[in-house]
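Troubleshooting log. The previous run stalled partway through. Resubmitting the same two chains, unchanged.
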Amino acid sequence: MKPDQISVRLNGEALEVARGSSLDALLASRNIAADSMASARNGEFVARSARSACLLADGDEITLFMPIVGG
Amino acid sequence: MDTLHLYGTHLHSRLLLGSAGYPSPSVLAEAIVASATQVVTVGLKRTLAGDGDNGFLQGVLQTLRAQGARLLPNTAGCRSAREAVQLARMARELYDTRWIKLEVVGDEYTLQPDPWQLLEAATILIAEGFQVFPYCTDDLVSCQRLLDAGCEVLMPWGAPIGSGQGLLNPWALRTLRERLPDTVLIVDAGIGAPSHAAAAMELGFDAVLLNSAVAHASDPALMAQAFGQVVAGARAGYRAGIMAPQAMAVASTPVTGRPFLIG
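Second attempt completed without errors. Output:
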């Protein structure tokens, strides 16, 4: 891994991203329809409005949630 | 007018319907319309590659808009207060509602709610402005603690989720109704037949929430209609005042003794 990169996991998939990347930028780079998903970092909810200020750290686990039917 | 009050929202339907397990989005939409429900439960889940729900939810949303109904997102699958709080926050963002059906399961076999984790999560969420609909057991004291925490609605189980066994402990449910006369009580889970829903309404419960009984019927729309009708009918029966059972026969026809003084 290059020194200017960090390793994160997005929905379980290992990725390398530039150090200092925001959650917003990560989602945009993956062409994810971010407005239709809720996001969490290491199990903690990150609101849409907070994604741009959420800077990723090495080892972060990013999880996205989508609406589904339910009982 | 006899309306159901849920956190300041007044509804005429007392049937809350789940949206999971239907054979197709169109059948789900038909069931929502046939039931005349005004509250439909939905969920959220971790996204995996290629995930989707085959258009089920979009169908729900369109039907709900046409029907003027509301969404009640749940925290299904949570095993701790921490998980449930995080999921509730996501649900509020995704569905743009403060309503949350709070589920925290404590046992994998029965899917029984964990009363301690449930109370902890409810306390946190209410402080954050959520309007919490806790899926709880029929234990009176744990229900009282949820009320103390600020819940205005309680949703005790009738039987384990998806079991269709009906009201396994009518005594506990009757006790809840008697001890919590001003609380909105909704039987959630375990209802398998319209007669089960009628029994809950005749106990004085304010509403019922069910899913599998409709979704798994041979004709979900017809079953949804049946539940809608029976819930309304049993509610009217409860309000009308159900007669007290008698130990022995009491003749109803006002005859004067025997018709003939022979034999």
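Takeaways: The longest strand of chain A covers residues 61-69. Residues 46 and 66 of chain A are 14 Å apart (CA to CA).
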